[in-house]
Amino acid sequence: MGRLGVSQALLSRHLGALEEAVGARLLDRTTRGSTLTEDGAALFATAEQVEVEMLAGLSRIGGRDDVAGTVRIGAPDGFGSAFLAPRLGRFRAAYPDLRLQLVPVPRSFSLSEREADIAIMVGRPVKGRLRVRKLAEYTLGLYAARGYLESQGQPGQLSDLKSHTLVGYVDDLIYTSELNYTAEFLRDWQSDIAISTAIGQFEAVRAGVGIGILHDFMAAGYPDLVRLFPDRGLSRTYWIVWHENLRVARRVKAVIELLDRIARDERDLFGADGTDVMHPAP
Q: Which residue ranges make up each domain of the chain?
């Protein structure tokens, strides 16, 4: 129980006392961990709302407008590592008392269980008590390293990709259909090198392993990478998502607004304007 600063035994006693006080079992305990019961989930949601309203009230007392505390941002590795991490200094400069945590978005991710305060997602979520804001459209294209093209030749048309080494995602680890886009370039795309992260694919392509589909904002500024078929590309959207119980938390609102401002300031880097959207190729 390192995050709470108490021992597991003490926490168990407190939980037991709480269950006795409310007259209901709040957790189902197993050897693999604990999960909230229906009553536990209901009480948790209420406690969240009480916490948010209390924090909002405290921030209004005496006209306080400081932004402090910890905000955890969950983001896909491409956006989080390649774009957001180098720009976290802007948050620190704007809010010196704010502590930021940047974590990767895994296949299963829960805002309601506070795995993050804010999530950057590919594709708009449709379930849950969530607030959603469009962050940015971004483009992707086919890339290869100059060294690879010099040794293996450059494909003249999309169907020529079949004779090249292709780099892509591990199919059964694709956690959203928005990332399953290889068929939009080549209907029967088969990845010879499969990597479960965008950063890993980027590094493999840049090292000359093969041809892959990369984020244009990640490839920008790397002259050793060649964008193949520059008039063809994919467009996707990043969304900022947060739990509705956090809608009045000043620290969360401040981070959301600054995220939005940074994305708007660097809209050209994402390259969504003027890109032809691909359709499945033969």
A: 43-136+237-268, 138-236
Taking the C-alpha atoms of residue 151 and residue 209, their distance in angstroms, rounded to an integer, is: 11
pLDDT digits 0-9 by tens, 190-240: 999 999 899 999 999 999 999 999 999 999 989 999 999 998 899 999 999
State pLDDT tens for residues 23-64: 888 777 777 667 778 877 777 767 766 665 665 565 555 444
What's the per-residue H, E or C state across the chain?
CCCCCCCHHHHHHHHHHHHHHHCCCCEEEECCEEEECHHHHHHHHHHHHHHHHHHHHHHHHHHCCCCCEEEEEEECHHHHHHHHHHHHHHHHHHCCCEEEEEEECCCCCCCCCCCCCEEEEECCCCCCCEEEEEEEEEEEEEEEEHHHHHHHCCCCCHHHHHHCCEEECCHHHCCCHHHCCHHHCCCCCCCCEECCCHHHHHHHHHCCCCEEEEEHHHHCCCCCEEEECCCCEEEEEEEEEEEHHHCCCHHHHHHHHHHHHHHHHCHHHHCCCCCCECCCCC
Same fold, 43-136+237-268 and 138-236: yes
Higher pLDDT residue, 114 or 97?
97
* Separation CA 23–CA 20 (nearest Å): 5
Phi, psi at 266, each rounded to 5°: -115, 30
| pLDDT at position 274 | 39
CATH 3.40.190.10 holds for 138-236: yes
Instruction: Tell me which CATH homologous superfamily contains domain 43-136+237-268.
Output: Periplasmic binding protein-like II (3.40.190.10)
